[in-house]
Amino acid sequence: GAVVSQHPSWVICKSGTSVKIECRSLDFQATTMFWYRQFPKQSLMLMATSNEGSKATYEQGVEKDKFLINHASLTLSTLTVTSAHPEDSSFYICSARDQKGTGIGNTIYFGEGSWLTVV
Amino acid sequence: LAKTTQPISMDSYEGQEVNITCSHNNIATNDYITWYQQFPSQGPRFIIQGYKTKVTNEVASLFIPADRKSSTLSLPRVSLSDTAVYYCLVVPSDSWGKLQFGAGTQVVVTP
Questions:
Q1: Which chain B residues are within 8 Å of A45, Cβ to Cβ?
Q2: I need a labelling partner for B7 at 20 to 30 A (CA). Which of A20, A77, A94, B71 fits?
């Protein structure tokens, strides 16, 4: 079945540096992908919608200059956390819908998630 | 997107049936009720989806009353590996995949 893959699975970076997380749809094309963050013991919070070939759409309260999203191809979206600080430490998850699939919820696929720890 | 409400947590023993009820009073005509499962440090995984009445697959059953303002996910004969967070969402039929997650229900299965 369709798969969404994230890389890296976990990353540790120093405060003030930037880190990039990749999200790939492995066997389907996705003009739209989504980025979520999840703090321990909390639910997923939608951060932004990544649009292929155009600017991302950010949810209210999410700093677009801090969380840079690039969707350069139909199978790849990247999230760059710029000038990372310890409070950015979280679990980041991406998702994409296989528009050619049958059904709705069963055609939305999530990546494995990426743990970011800022020290 | 319609808001959902579900219990924060549920405990069960192995072999029992677990039923999680979700309220979605503002569900729209074109919304589907969708349930996801999430294990720690993993992305959510689709479990089941329905529009009305009853849906059953190899993992669970979903019961939806006629007014569609609530739904119940039924996990038959749970095992320890069913310990996870279960999220109830309503998803428009024309969705591009944008989802708004509620708090979810932490199900803990013990021996």
A1: 101
A2: A94
Report yes or no: A7 and A21 within 8 Å, Cβ to Cβ. yes
Cβ A97–B97 below 8 Å, yes or no?
yes
Three-state SS string across chain B, please? CCCCECCCEEEEECCCCEEEEEECCCCCCCEEEEEEEECCCCCCEEEEEECCEEEECCCCEEEECCCCCEEEEEECCCCHHHCEEEEEEEEECCCCCCCCCCCCEEEEEEC
Question: Which chain A residues contact residue B96 at CB under 8 A?
Answer: 32, 49, 97, 99
Asked if A102 has any chain B CB less than 8 Å from its own CB, the reply is no
Structural contact between residues B37 and B63, judged by C-beta atoms closer than 8 angstroms: no
Are A95 and A28 a contacting pair, CB within 8 Å? no
Kindly provide the b/e burial profile for residues A85-115, where b requires at least 16 CB atoms within 10 angstroms of the residue's own CB. eeebbbbbbbbbbbeeeeebbbbbbbbebbb
Peptide bond into A8 cis (omega under 30): yes
Handedness of CA A111, A115, B1, B3 (dihedral sign): positive
Cα separations in angstroms, B53 against A33, B41, B66: 31, 33, 7
Tens-digit pLDDT string for chain A (119 aa): 669 999 999 999 999 999 999 999 999 999 999 999 999 999 999 999 999 989 999 999 999 999 999 998 999 999 999 999 999 999 999 999 988 888 788 889 999 999 999 99
